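User: Please predict structures.

Assistant: First:
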Amino acid sequence: MRNNVSTAATVAGFLFIAYWVIFGWMVYVSPLTYREMDFDHDGQVSFGEAGYASSFGTRMYVNHGRHCTEYLAYKDGLPLKTSCRD
């Protein structure tokens, strides 16, 4: 019985660590800031939001003298958001 508890605790610990490693990697590779990843504006970034945000890419361009960043989805290349600054 003691071995089963130990094995279960080890597996649970591994899954906990794996979850946070994957979540951290998705946040790290996303071109969005952590605040921008909170799509439902509830103050927390869920695993689903981080996964969706990690599938974005960016494209920089100049439009009428303004430097713009276009966020696009890797799955289809369509723009999702454009942010410009002077």
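Second:
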Amino acid sequence: MNSRPNPNNPFLTVEKPGDEKASGLLSPLGGKTVVERIVDRLLQAIMEGELSPGQKIPTEMELCESLRVGRNSVREAIKVLVSMGVLSIRRSEGTFVTEGFSERMLDPMLYSLILAGGDSFAVIELRQLFETGVLRIAMGKRTDDDLRMLEAVYGEMEDLVRDGVTEEELLDIDIRFHRVLTAIVKNPLVDKISMVIERLTLPSRAEVSRGFIERGKLAAYLAKHADIIRIIRERDDAAVARTIDEHFSDWRSFSARMRARKAQK
């Protein structure tokens, strides 16, 4: 292939006479939705390191010329990536790859999960798989300070249950407990996935919190969380699968009842 880099933009390939197509980030697009193809191409460039965080992307005109698409399509694709938090526009400077993490990046993943697997049992299985992995890694990485933080949240949980906890309080303390558990893993990618799962499961977790209170099962609720702390303290790997399965058994049961109740209405 006869092409040479553009000296003004290392990501833009300029065709020589006789070239069949340009190569690299901005090679012409094939037969797919134009805006989606532009989005895919830029995301691929970021994931493969052709474009780095904080780096300015090619101008609209450069993208138009190299991808052989209209300016409106380029603008729409950039809007999509800006809304996702992947790109940011700096007035009078241009469009740049976002530096750092933005919560907006989670929204497309969250929406796709809701659309593809909104069923409550699918959500339960997703969180169960995630929590099993988190517990195993946290068990190996935990420090004495980590253990103390988890025990402190559990102590607040006990106090709330003793004093008469509300549904909202129980949901809040449960979220805090599992956030500390996830933080013990000390992995920023796990933190981000945890945020997605937390938002995805919030409605069903609220219903489950109500179920524990209404059915008088708060002692069992405390015992399940105490067992998680014991596993982490003793690094009891053999008990992980059983404990997580028991931890989610009530969630599955409450979800089944909720579905039956809704079906009767």
